[in-house]
Structures are given as structure tokens and as C-alpha cells.
């Protein structure tokens, strides 16, 4: 099996590693980089717990090879808060009780950020549609939608 | 799950990628990877070399040119979904793009991959059958055009040679009087269709249908072209009787199997209902 030297920018930091071809991006993030905020849920491209931003697009990192990410920019949940201040989406999940067990939350938040970047004025339907690749086993969707609405408003004020 | 071991190469030109395929006949192309990587993880597919074509420039585009809509093989489903040209003129394609997997998968999944994988449950095959698309394959001797009706040869099998790469999809360019629609029933977002029907028609100035294409998703070992249903529409004004006749013929053309998504009878009835809905919507769009 071939191995490959890769360079990626993760949450603004340049990271280099030698990775085997078959290493999944989610394992690279969790095990090689030790960033365990990105979760592994179904491991079969269904649940979205492993969602990260790859060059600004939300993707399921259990279905991307680490070597495919060579040269790209990755954002994980650890990259959201800046200087101890929560990102508006994190604040929204906090204020609106957008989580119960919290397992799906990092993926939900990264999908929501990608959604709000594309559509700063989403309707409830847009939000549900935009998050349809992320599953919450606690079925806390009502408050998740509210959390995204909270963040949308906050981001509109900030920008 | 960890995929089995393989070698990985990421060529930057099509020629280079084709050269790798010539040297390693068991190699597989990695496009969006959202069918292939799960298959590898489940050990349902094995591969000695993955040829990642994501680093090849110039394979992602959507443009009208010379009477065709040309789509680069590496165009992501999300790009299709949000493209204004597709939204305005190619409603069948826009309908289908929105129903493929989920928004996260659509950020990676590609149109070319969806076709080359030739899963009869995938959505683009039936859509392209309805459009009468042409597949462009790049090989050692240059480009080759394959009519879509000759592309799907068997379950997960296409007319592509082992040393060829699907590089472009061509759809007849939109003209006034065209209308299309994709009707899909899925149990939930991200599931494959229980059944789906793709329809593309052209209505002449006299109100008579002169071209009709109908493709069926996930009701047979390959995507199905409902040829008898298409023929019964041509020359008709797509009145209720013609629509119902075509829907019955489409249901007759389906070869569904009973499984956890429904019985054979149910899926056949579903094809009939979805064909009626798709034709009515396509007609409405053709008139606007």
C-alpha cells in the first residue's frame, strides 16, 4: 500500500503527516491530529456526525480519504470558537438547547455554518432541508432549527 | 471501518490517468467516492490501485455549446443543484439533483460518477435516458461518444472499456416547448428511490408532442427506458387518455423485485402513478 506525505490547514494551522492511502479523513483528524470533536457515528455516509468543512464545503469525513484532502483547508468544531468566544452557531445551540446527548452537535453546527454562508436568510424549511444529511438520534430537531435561526440572526447583525 | 489496502495515485491530466489504467487493469477511478469508498469499507469492492481524478483540471463545468448542454464528469451534484442555467432550462435535471442522497453527499458526489457506477438505483441514469444524452469517454485513442441507450450494459456495468474514463455528458440543449420532470419516492432523505420516473418531452407549436423520453430508476437490473410508453405519447396532445396509456406502458416496462422498500406489485403501481405526475408536470412546464 502506498503512503503519502500530505499538508493540510486545519483550523488555520498547517499540519503535515505521512499517511497510508486507505486512511480516512475522520481517522486522520481524530487519531493523527487528536481532534476528537469530530465524531464517528454510522461510519456509512448516513448520519453526518463526522461532518467537517473541506475548503468551505460541508462533507462527511468518514467517506473521504485523508490523502484526498492534501492541500486543502479543513474546519472542525475545535476551530469555531475564537479567543474563548463562542461562534454564533455554538451560542445558538447553547441558548436554544439545541442538543441533548450532543453526539450529532459538531456535525450539525458545521453543516449549519455552510448553510448560512450560502443562505443567510433561511426559512425553517431551508434549515430542515440544509440539515437533512445530519441525523439526531435524540430527535431534538425543533430546538436545532431554533439554534440555527438564532445563529442566522446573530450573523446577520454581525455582518 | 477501514478500507482494505490499496495504492493511490492522483494524476493531473486525463492522459496520465488513462496511462495508469493501461498499466493496471484492476485500477478503479475515484471521482466523488461516495459510492466507491463505502463499497471498499464494506468489502463489497476491492481494488489494487485507486486513480483519483479530482486533481485533473477542466473536468467540472456546465455550459451550452453547439446545440448541447455539456456537463463535465467531475461536476458535483451540489453545483448542478445550484446552477442558474440548470434551474431555468433543465428542470428534469434540477429535480433529480435535489433528490440525490443528501446535501453533504452532494458536495462530493459527481454526475460522471453517478453514471459510471451504473447502479440502477442511482438517479442520473434514468434522467439521461429521458434526455437522450450522449456519454463522452476519453481513452488512449482520444474521445469516443456513446449513446446513453448503449451505455448501461448490465448491473453495475457500462460500455466503458477498462482504459476509458467518462469525461463529459451531453444533453440536447433546451428549446422552446421542452418540459421535463423527475418524480421520486424515497422513504427518507438519503435513501435510494423505491421507484422514480424521469420524463422529458417536447411539444410542437400545434400542441402535439413530437419527442418523449421516459427513464425508470431502481425497478430493474439496469435503468430502464420505457420505449413503448414514449412511442404512445408521440403524436398525441398529452391528454389524460394518452398520459394514462403511457403510465400503464411504463409500469409494464418496469421489472421490479420485492424487497424491504416494497412488493413488486406496489412498485409497479408506483411507476404508473409517478409517470402520470411527471408527465402532467412536464406538460405544464413545456407550456410555460
Protein topology:
The complex is a heterodimer of chains A (159) and B (288).
Chain A: E1 3-10, E2 13-20, H1 25-32, E3 51-54, E4 57-60, E5 73-75, H2 88-95, H3 105-118, H4 124-130, H5 141-158
Parallel strand pairs in A: 1-5
Antiparallel strand pairs in A: 1-2, 3-4, 3-5
Chain B: E1 7-9, H1 14-23, E2 28-30, H2 36-41, E3 49-52, E4 62-65, E5 68-72, H3 77-82, H4 84-89, H5 91-99, H6 103-106, H7 111-116, H8 124-131, E6 134-139, E7 142-147, E8 152-154, E9 157-158, E10 165-172, E11 178-186, E12 193-203, E13 209-217, E14 224-225, H9 227-233, H10 240-253, H11 264-287
Parallel strand pairs in B: 1-3, 2-3
Antiparallel strand pairs in B: 4-5, 5-10, 6-7, 6-10, 8-9, 11-12, 12-13, 13-14
Helix pairs in contact in B: 9-10, 10-11
Can you give a write-up of this model?
The complex is a heterodimer of chains A (159) and B (288). Helices cover 35% and strands 17% of the residues of chain A. Chain A has helices at 25-32, 88-95, 105-118, 124-130, 141-158, and strands at 3-10, 13-20, 51-54, 57-60, 73-75. In chain A, β3 and β4 form a beta hairpin. The radius of gyration of chain A is 16 Å and the shape is globular. Chain B has three domains: 7-52, Uridine Diphospho-n-acetylenolpyruvylglucosamine Reductase, domain 2, CATH 3.30.43.10; 62-172, Uridine Diphospho-n-acetylenolpyruvylglucosamine Reductase, domain 3, CATH 3.30.465; 178-287, CO dehydrogenase flavoprotein, C-terminal domain (Enolase-like, domain 1). In chain B, the strands form four sheets. In chain B, strands 4-5-10-6-7 form a five-stranded antiparallel sheet. In chain B, strands 11-12-13-14 form a four-stranded antiparallel sheet, with helices on both faces. In chain B, strands 1-3-2 form a three-stranded parallel sheet, with helices on one face. In chain B, β8 and β9 form a beta hairpin. Chain B is α+β, with helices and mostly antiparallel strands and 288 residues long. The chains are: A alpha+beta (159), B alpha+beta (288). The A-B interface holds A 1-2, 4, 20-22, 24, 27, 43-46, 48, 51, 54, 57-60, 63-65, 67-68, 70, 111, 115, 118, 129-130, 132-134 and B 1-10, 30, 33-34, 37-38, 40-42, 50, 52, 54, 78, 82, 101-105, 107-108, 189-190.
Amino acid at each position: 500500500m502506498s503512503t503519502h506525505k500530505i499538508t493540510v490547514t486545519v483550523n488555520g494551522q498547517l499540519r503535515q503527516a505521512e499517511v497510508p492511502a486507505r486512511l480516512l479523513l475522520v481517522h486522520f483528524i481524530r487519531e493523527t491530529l487528536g481532534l476528537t470533536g469530530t465524531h464517528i457515528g454510522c461510519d456509512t455516509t448516513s448520519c453526518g456526525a463526522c461532518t467537517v468543512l473541506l475548503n468551505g464545503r460541508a462533507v462527511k469525513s468518514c467517506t473521504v480519504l485523508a490523502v484526498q484532502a492534501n492541500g486543502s483547508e479543513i474546519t472542525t468544531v475545535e476551530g469555531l470558537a475564537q479567543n474563548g468566544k463562542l461562534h454564533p452557531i455554538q451560542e445558538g445551540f447553547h441558548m436554544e438547547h439545541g442538543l441533548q446527548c450532543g453526539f450529532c452537535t459538531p456535525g450539525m453546527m458545521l453543516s449549519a455554518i455552510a448553510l448560512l454562508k450560502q443562505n443567510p436568510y433561511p426559512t425553517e424549511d431551508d434549515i430542515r432541508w440544509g440539515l437533512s444529511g445530519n441525523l439526531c438520534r435524540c430527535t431534538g430537531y425543533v430546538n436545532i432549527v431554533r439554534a440555527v435561526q438564532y445563529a442566522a440572526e446573530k450573523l446577520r447583525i454581525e455582518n | 471501518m477501514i478500507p482494505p489496502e490499496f495504492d493511490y495515485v492522483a494524476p493531473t491530466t486525463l492522459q496520465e490517468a488513462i496511462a495508469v489504467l493501461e498499466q493496471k487493469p484492476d485500477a478503479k477511478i475515484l471521482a466523488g467516492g461516495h459510492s466507491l469508498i463505502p463499497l471498499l469499507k464494506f468489502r463489497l469492492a476491492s481494488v489494487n490501485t485507486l486513480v483519483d481524478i479530482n486533481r485533473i483540471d477542466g473536468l467540472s463545468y456546465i455550459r451550452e455549446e453547439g446545440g448541447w448542454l455539456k456537463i463535465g464528469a467531475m461536476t458535483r451534484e451540489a453545483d448542478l443543484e445550484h446552477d442558474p442555467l440548470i434551474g431555468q432550462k433543465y428542470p428534469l435535471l434540477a429535480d433529480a439533483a435535489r433528490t440525490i442522497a443528501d446535501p453533504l453527499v452532494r458536495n462530493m458526489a459527481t454526475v460522471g460518477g453517478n453514471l459510471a457506477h451504473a447502479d440502477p438505483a442511482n438517479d442520473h441514469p434514468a434522467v439521461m435516458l429521458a434526455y437522450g444524452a450522449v456519454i463522452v469517454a476519453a481513452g488512449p485513442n482520444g474521445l469516443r461518444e456513446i449513446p446513453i441507450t448503449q451505455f448501461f450494459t448490465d448491473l453495475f456495468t457500462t460500455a466503458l472499456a477498462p482504459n476509458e474514463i467518462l469525461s463529459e455528458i451531453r444533453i440536447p440543449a433546451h428549446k422552446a416547448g421542452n418540459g421535463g420532470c423527475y418524480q421520486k419516492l424515497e422513504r427518507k432523505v438519503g435513501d435510494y428511490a423505491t421507484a422514480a420516473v424521469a420524463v422529458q418531452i417536447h411539444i410542437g407549436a400545434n400542441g402535439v408532442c413530437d419527442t418523449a423520453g421516459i427513464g425508470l430508476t431502481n425497478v430493474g437490473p439496469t435503468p430502464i427506458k420505457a420505449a413503448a410508453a414514449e412511442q404512445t405519447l408521440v403524436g398525441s396532445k398529452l391528454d389524460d387518455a394518452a398520459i394514462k396509456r403511457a403510465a400503464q406502458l411504463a409500469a409494464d416496462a418496469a421489472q421490479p423485485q420485492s424487497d424491504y422498500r416494497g412488493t413488486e406489485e406496489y412498485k409497479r403501481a408506483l411507476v404508473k402513478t409517478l409517470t402520470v405526475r411527471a408527465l402532467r408536470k412536464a406538460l405544464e412546464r413545456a407550456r410555460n
